[in-house]
Amino acid sequence: MKRDDKKRFEEDIVREVQADYKRRAQMRKTYEAQWQLNSNFVMGNQYCYVNVKGEVEDGEKDYFWQEREVYNHIATVIESRLSKLSSVRPKLVVQPASGDDRDVKSAKASSKILDSAYNCLELDKKISRATMWSELTGTAFYKTVWNANGGRCVGEEDGEKIYEGDVRVDVCPPYEIYPDAVSHMDVEDCCSIIHAKALPVDEIYRVWGKRVKSEPLHTLSSYNVSLLGGLNNVSAVAKMGKSESEDYALVIERYSKPTSDKQDGELVIVAGDTLLYLGTLTSNGGKAEYPFVKQTCIDNPGCFFGISMVERCIPVQRAYNAVKNRKHEFMNRIAMGVLAVEDGSIDTRDLEEDGLGPGKILIYRQGSTPPRLLDPGSVPNDFSQEENRLLAEFAEVRGISDIMRSSSVPSTVTSGSAIQMLIEQDNTRINITAQNVKNAIKDVARKILALYKSNACFVRLTRFVGEEGDVELISWNASDLSCDDVVFGSVNEISGTIASKQNTMFELLRSGLLHDSNGKLPASTRRKILDVFGYGGWEQTQYVNSLHVTRAERENYELPKKPIEVSEIDDHDLHIEEHTKFMLSSDFDKVLKKDSSLKEKLLDHIRKHKQFAMLTKQTEAQYEGQTNG
């Protein structure tokens, strides 16, 4: 392609992507206004509304004396829900593709790699951030991509360092995501998705190596705004609004689903009038798919974006603020009084400035009627009744009870069964959101494994903590990841508190369900029990049993090369079990084809273990008899 033709081709692509972005931005404008309104109400700027143009606008006072205080119950609702959802961190394990021993070991290795990636990528912090956005706006997104400059440095070529690469997980608020149609409920249903984000022009040059012109952009940010509370009381609250950024440019990434003519999909990245990148989608496990995972607070039927609990609370919050402020205005009239003054009898300007202070001398015109206070009456009971009704409506709308919000039990509830029932009802209401968080985490884990499987070419070393609390290193590459079928390995963490889990553990210990066939508590079980009680760090050492298993596995593969002697210090029962498992696996059949004598060697090795085990038991029996005698 000639240079002029290439330039025209790139310009056409840039214009088409820019036009597509503007169309989607206009289509999504009403949702964006709602998200901005939600943010303002959580921050405390609750005297704003969405005008006919679809923009958030502050409301003005009708009178200078009007009370406009904010009694923010929405913030406590969000804080309580975030606190409850912070415990939703499910244990993820990889399910083997088959019962073959090699697939089982591969699945175990994948689970360990997933645990290590969870800590290295700081997923706990990112899950908390995504949950914050989903609770605030109703929707949040995880973007999982391969970072070629991540991981350890493995070499250097032409003065440039070469890295092994690693997965990168970013949290994207819904402001940055533009689907082709808001009627699609899932990410996979969209034909294309745009991720648009404002970046500094220097950062764009560092990543893509192209200079682009800065453009005036209006980005959402928080800043302080002063609002009159009532009379002369002034308070400053945070406000979410649009501010202009300098030296920034809008980077638009459009991801298109694979089609008949573009079987690997398409990724177009533009900034301003410059084409930064044109290529295919990242392949996850041999399949081109979007890098995004959606997490919603509450699913919105027939809509791409979810519903936030804040949207349901806003009408109740507005009514509550109005009732409280009108009630306080009434009380101000009672406390300060309303004067009736005959025209021209006194200097009203002086009375307006100073009021009726204690000991004040009022001079009025002789023969006129003295100023008098009008009877203000009393605060109607309707105010208090409506205030209580609105508080009860808050409890119904927000999805959490007063137990979760105020960490206290209602005085009318004294039965332990009734308290437990209220807690279970809380869990039932919030379990919908908790399940959405868990499903999003599982999808992110699956994408992480798929990216490692497609891009982890170099041999890697990963550190992990085993079942016995021991810290080990595992060597692996992409070929060791045979499956990415991620499942939950733990129950829903939100279904019980730490105290309830500990009580359940005590009951299991008393019933003997955690003991082995000999009535003893296995070391691995003891480690998990200590984890439940928060003392898992006491056993961060290598157990002897795990060392015996590791040695037996090593002997399985060293036996064809050299004879292995049975030692007196071996745990013979564990060695016999591991050698038998190896002989029943498909790996043994493959090794047997190369060396037919291996079967007899391994059987002879097992027989020696059995002989040693028998001698050990006889010795122990004789020693016990002598001791009793």
Structure commentary:
The strands form nine sheets. Strands 8-9-12-13-14 form a five-stranded antiparallel sheet. A hairpin with a 2-residue loop joins strand 10 and strand 11 (233-245). It is α+β, with helices and mostly antiparallel strands and 629 residues long. The protein is 45% helix and 19% strand. It is built from 17 helices and 22 strands. The longest helix has 40 residues, at 416-455.
Helix-strand category: alpha+beta
- Measured as a percent range, the helix fraction is 40-55%
Summed up, the helix count is: 17
Average pLDDT confidence is: 80
Shape: flat
Question: Would you report the number of β strands?
Answer: 22
Strand order of the largest sheet: 8-9-12-13-14
Low-confidence runs of at least 5 consecutive residues = 537-542
Strand content: 15-25%
Kindly report how far apart the N and C termini lie: 99 Å
Please summarize the sheet with the most strands. 5 strands, antiparallel
Radius of gyration: 35 Å
Question: What are the SSEs and their pairings?
Answer:
Layout: H1 3-27, H2 29-43, E1 48-50, E2 56-58, H3 74-85, E3 92-94, H4 101-120, H5 123-137, E4 139-147, E5 153-157, E6 160-163, E7 166-172, E8 177-179, E9 192-200, H6 201-208, E10 217-230, E11 233-245, E12 248-256, E13 266-271, E14 274-279, E15 283-284, E16 287-288, E17 292-296, H7 309-336, E18 339-340, H8 348-354, E19 372-373, H9 381-398, H10 402-406, H11 416-455, E20 460-465, E21 471-476, E22 486-488, H12 498-511, H13 523-532, H14 544-558, H15 572-583, H16 586-594, H17 598-628
